[in-house]
């Protein structure tokens, strides 16, 4: 199912400087960014890392954000179009805000989120495999779902599956991903074979022990002859 659409609010500040200045901002827990898009000139901005993270975690890349460049500025409808994260710390390093034309349809990738618990997994019969994480849809910006939830509670046995055609899509949204593509499936658990070492024949250990004693005795005799 598609989640309810909500508009989020975020205030950023104008920014001046180069990439070297961006490094300085990050040390101050600020994230450099840029605003561009429909009928606006590209503008460099900066935003508090905590505020950006909070909004981005909720809005994602397809949730509408009322962006104000300054506390008293008129808000603009934007998407958080792209973010860059530090590969080690995973903190936000840069953000792109794209101003949206609310009257023009857009094609975007919407995230699929699996919800519920598959009975086959709970009973230990199989493992849940998510084969698809996004679907392509087309709609007006105000109609784009921020994400699509897929309930897996009906997956009761191995080979039970959910396909794109099973998604519940709002009437004002066009699904572009082929319906036969697999979203999630219960697959057979892998059973690792235990290879047992062959047992030694009865009496083999005793024979080996006798052989060792014989060798020891031989050494003793040789020593005696030399003396």
The level of helicity is 10-25%
Give the CATH level 1 class of the largest domain: Mainly Beta
CATH superfamily of the largest domain: Ribosomal Protein L25, Chain P
* Beta-strand fraction estimate: 35-45%
How would you describe this protein?
The protein is α+β, with helices and mostly antiparallel strands and 227 residues long. The protein has 2 domains: 8-101, Ribosomal Protein L25, Chain P; 107-188, RNA Polymerase Alpha Subunit, Chain A, domain 2 (Beta Complex). Helix content is 21%, strand content 36%. It has 4 helices and 13 strands. It has a 6-stranded mixed beta barrel. It is flat and about 90 Å long. The mean pLDDT is 86.
Please outline what is shown here.
Helices cover 21% and strands 36% of the residues. It is α+β, with helices and mostly antiparallel strands and 227 residues long. The protein has two domains: 8-101, Beta Barrel (Ribosomal Protein L25, Chain P); 107-188, RNA Polymerase Alpha Subunit, Chain A, domain 2 (Beta Complex).
Jot down its keywords.
227 residues; alpha+beta; Ribosomal Protein L25, Chain P; 2 domains; 4 helices
Task: Furnish the topology, listing elements before pairings.
Blueprint: E1 8-14, H1 19-27, E2 30-37, E3 43-48, H2 49-59, E4 65-69, E5 76-85, E6 92-99, E7 106-115, H3 119-122, E8 126-130, E9 134-139, E10 147-151, E11 161-163, E12 174-175, E13 182-188, H4 204-226
Parallel strand pairs: 1-4, 2-6, 7-10
Antiparallel strand pairs: 1-3, 2-3, 4-5, 5-6, 7-9, 8-13, 9-12, 11-13
């Amino acid at each position: 199912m598609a989640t309810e659409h909500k508009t989020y609010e975020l205030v950023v500040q104008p920014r001046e400087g180069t990439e070297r200045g961006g490094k300085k901002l990050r040390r101050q827990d600020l994230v450099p960014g840029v605003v561009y898009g429909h009928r606006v000139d590209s503008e460099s901005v900066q935003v508090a890392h905590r505020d950006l993270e909070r909004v981005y975690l909720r809005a994602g890349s397809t949730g509408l954000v009322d962006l104000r460049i300054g506390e008293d500025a008129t808000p603009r409808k934007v998407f958080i179009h792209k973010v860059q994260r530090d590969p080690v710390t995973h903190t936000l390093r840069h953000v792109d805000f794209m101003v949206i034309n609310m009257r023009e349809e857009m094609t975007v990738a919407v995230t699929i989120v699996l919800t519920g618990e598959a009975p086959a997994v709970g009973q230990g019969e199989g493992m849940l495999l998510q084969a698809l994480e996004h679907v392509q849809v087309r709609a007006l910006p105000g109609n784009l779902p921020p994400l699509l939830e897929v309930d897996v509670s009906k997956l009761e046995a191995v080979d039970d599956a959910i396909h794109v055609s099973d998604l519940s899509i709002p009437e004002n949204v066009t699904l572009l991903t082929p319906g036969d593509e697999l979203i999630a499936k219960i697959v057979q658990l892998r059973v690792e074979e235990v290879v047992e070492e062959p047992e030694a024949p009865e009496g083999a250990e005793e024979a080996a022990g006798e052989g060792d004693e014989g060798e020891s005795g031989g050494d003793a005799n040789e020593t005696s002859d030399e003396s």
